[in-house]
Amino acid sequence: MFARFDMIWQTGRLASLAVGGIAADQFGIQAVYALGGLLLLAAGTIGLTGMPLSKPDDPSSPARAPE
Known about the structure:
Blueprint (H helix, E strand, L loop, with lengths): L1 H26 L1 H22 L17
Helix pairs in contact: 1-2
């Protein structure tokens, strides 16, 4: 099972290199870097705003061990 996940991960990395190379050839490296930066900012924003913050003593917190 882990070998399959690793194969999928490595295939995705290879595909991203190909897509990035084609995009850099078509639009220029500066546009690819700008798009990558925007995607990184979007992912960070989603990560920070989409993850609810709960207090450790909150009974609805998934990290709390059952008693």
